[in-house]
Amino acid sequence: MGEKPRISLIHATSVAMQPINESFLRLWPDAVVYNLLDDSLTADLERAGGDVMAMAHRFSALVRYALEGAADGILFTCSAFGPAVELARAGGSIPMLKPNEAMIEEALAIGRKIALIATFRPALAPIMDEFHQAASGLELNPVFVEGALNALKAGDQAAHDRLIAEACAAASGSDVVCFTQFSMTSARDASHLACRRPTLTTTDSAVEKLKSLIAQRSGKK
Fold this sequence. Notes:
The chain is an alpha/beta fold. The chain has helices at 17-27, 40-47, 56-68, 82-89, 101-110, 124-134, 148-153, 157-169, 188-195, 202-217, and strands at residues 6-11, 32-37, 73-76, 96-97, 113-118, 139-144, 176-179, 199-200.
């Protein structure tokens, strides 16, 4: 590995790109970050009736492409494709993170009553499965925020953030609130104020975890 780690981000939607790149700039500016985007994956998942494994071979192809580009680490940014990502990264020789796993670790360290907030409905089932695989005795509260993602795609970030914050306000009885998608990060501060509970984002958790894994691999502290 060279002096600066080379990280490939694999995206299924363009709205995930800015939030995760901003997290890298803030938390790990020494990383050299490249973006691989296939924005047909989300539409094709819907056409496949939510069959995530129908996308598995395409994620495997994206991983091979990143490896051929000498990536030192890979981060998948779309939470709706967990099982396909798991298969694609199996047996990999470099750190490869699913989008949710670092946040799940943080959430479980806080409590067992967990609100899961999503603006893309297919993101909920995979992350619920991941939580149940990680721990037992959980009380999960899945919340889909109608209209928020469409507002963001239309350029109305204020409406996107407001709708998410309103949903989080209704989840104030949880121990911790978790955003299920990278694209939701801009609503974190407003949502935290609305619910007054720890509010976790996949972006910051993922960057910190990947940074730690790469440091361990290279023998650095």
